[in-house]
Amino acid sequence: MGSLLIGAVLAGLTHGAELTYPSESSSSSMVTLTLDSVTIPYNNIVTRGYNGGVPGPTLRVSPGGTLSVSIVNNLLESNNKDCDTTGEHFCYAATSNFHTHGLHVSSKGTSDGLTYPSDDVTVEIAPGATQQFSIVLPDYHMPGTHWYHPHMHHATAIQAAGGLLGMIVVDDPSDYLPSDYSSMEEKILIFSGHNWETLQSIAGKAQSGLLETVADDLSTAGLETNVVFVNGQFQPTMSLESGKWYRFRNLFAAIEQNLIMTESGDATCTFKLLAKDGIYIDDMPRDITQIYMFPGGRSDVAVTCTCTTYPCTGTIDSAAARRLPPADGPGETDTYVGTVLNLAISQGSGTAANLPSATMTKPCYLVDLQSVSVDSGKTGALTLDGGSRSVKWNGVGESMTHANFHSWDAWTPLTTFEVGSVYEMTVTGVNGHPLHTHVNPFQITQMPASSYYEDFVKVGDWHDTLQLSDLGGSDSVTVRQQTDAFTGKEVIHCHILEHEDEGMMNFISISGTEGTTWSGAEGIDSTCYRTSYVSASPASSPAASPAASPAASPAASPAASPAAAPADATSQADTGNVQTVSASMMALLLLTTLCRL
How far from chain centre, in Å, is Cα 408? Predict the structure, then answer.
């Protein structure tokens, strides 16, 4: 470790430097994201970034708002070798696009009649080109934490894991949260895992120019080649005051690794889970002792820290987690273990109050589906098959390799779902491969155990990305989702990004009338909402620890309600059968940066 510290000094790094935060852009105006080569402080690595740095700016939007984003691709054509030239699954390293990971929005594009693409991952932005996106959130979109990154097939790993990433925050509507939660000081924390040996291997295969010698250069400098950055910094320090709660908005962007974070040192910190993948849990706040993250996952955690003697320090450390199976690169034991973030605790006034138990009112597309009777024709087996690098439905599905895949239009979907319905999927392979679904999140309805990772993952939780390495290879997880409002492609893939590039991706075609919603939601939860959230007091009561969430009511005869369609991007052209509700919301969350060192 001493040689590594000496190397860090020679490389111009300062361990424990003040944590900084990404700039923020609101949805009130067009946001320009320029892709270019950027230099980051860690050994002056030259990689890819947005607007001159890693990570990109945080984008904030309200339910019912529009993300208007212009992507300017300044990457070099000379680094854009095609797959025939590379002879590999990794290619087109300088062609890009834009994916809003976690947003419940349309996946359609200009070929579907839109003026500008929404969350359309079939878009290709060549070097030197510019493309505008218009991503309209439904008025009833759940507030929460999401992120953006490129999703160019065969180049996702080298681009997203190399630094092209940023957070999206869908702000809470006014009076949505109890004041104990809405008053929390917010911390944007983007944990990015960079295994530079794996990235060097991929860069060499893609003939990408950038990052082709990055691991060798780090080794020569005596620096670690497998690291976790926080907001683009290596082992920074964040200052906190005792006597108050903070809301950590956590994102883990990684090439292939899990991250299990715990606190140690002289400080004593309490963690309480509020939300995962941008959806509030029903038993908020949930007591947890560790923050379990896998590639693409997000979590919102309330944190408060105290000292026996002030001031004091602590660390957020990464424990030895199982390394996910790589496509190539270093061995299975090469997992980053060590300090991720330093904490400096000063004495504040008073004592942090007990947080009240709260079950938030949810949009109707997120009602509890555990008690629903799913039609037999709307169930099936989804397999993440690592050996063949494929995603299969009821045992059928090809790998999206370069040899097999020539265009999205020519590709046969796994199956067809009907919009405005409930579907059940029995999923195998999530022990080694993080499952990610676009457009529609899913609810866990059955696992071999009722919870994992000390209650961080429980039956009944919602996710759009899920990986449980404690499962056996043949163990399955059952999930359900509503195909709410949006027709088109629901892309499904492994979020080990090099696996995705190698072909472990597919899509389900959602058919029917755009804007159709499931009419059974109110029969389960009469308080769910289909238009803009209207201020009401959420169910809460003072409690020192989380109360168990109430059991879901049986789905009596579903009450039909007007199918108020989201104000999604399809309203630009696909307006035939869509009723849009144009109500905008305003929300405010405070972000300050009390940092030390």
Answer: 23
* CA nearest to 120, candidates 574, 495, 491: 491
Q: Residues 6 or more apart from 257 whose CB is under 8 A from it?
A: 193, 195, 295, 321, 323, 324, 335, 336
Distance CA 291, CA 477 (A): 21
Other CB atoms closer than 10 Å to residue 74's CB: what's the count?
A: 14
pLDDT at 533 over 90: yes
| Nearest to 513, CA basis, from 421, 442, 377, 582 | 421
Burial, 287: exposed, middle or buried (Cβ in 10 Å; 0-12, 13-18, 19+)?
A: middle
Vertex 160: Cα angle to 158 and 164 (nearest 5): 115
How confident is the model over 25-39, as pLDDT tens digits? 987 789 999 999 999
Q: Position of tokens 């996702």?
A: 156
Residue 284 near residue 360, CB atoms below 8 Å: yes
Confidence (pLDDT) at 16: 80
Q: Can you tell me the mean pLDDT for 75-80?
A: 98
Pairing of strands 476-482, 66-73: unpaired
Tokens of 145: 């934490």
Q: What pLDDT digit, counting tens, does each position of 496-517 carry?
A: 999 999 999 999 999 999 999 9
**What stretches of 166-229 show up as alpha helix (H) in DSSP?**
179-182, 196-206, 214-220
For 74-112, strand residue ranges (E) read: 99-101
Element (H, E) at 512: none
397 token code pair: 């599905």
Confidence of residue 557 (pLDDT cuts 50, 70, 90): very low
Q: Rounded to the nearest 5°, which phi and psi values hold at 248? A: -85, 120
- C-alpha–C-alpha distance, residues 164 and 294, integer Å: 18
Q: Is the pLDDT of residue 221 over 80?
A: yes
Find the helix or strand (DSSP H, E) in which 83 lies: helix 83-86
Examine the pLDDT at 4 and tell me if it is beyond 70: no
Run of H or E including 4: helix 2-10
| C-alpha 276, offset from chain centre | 9
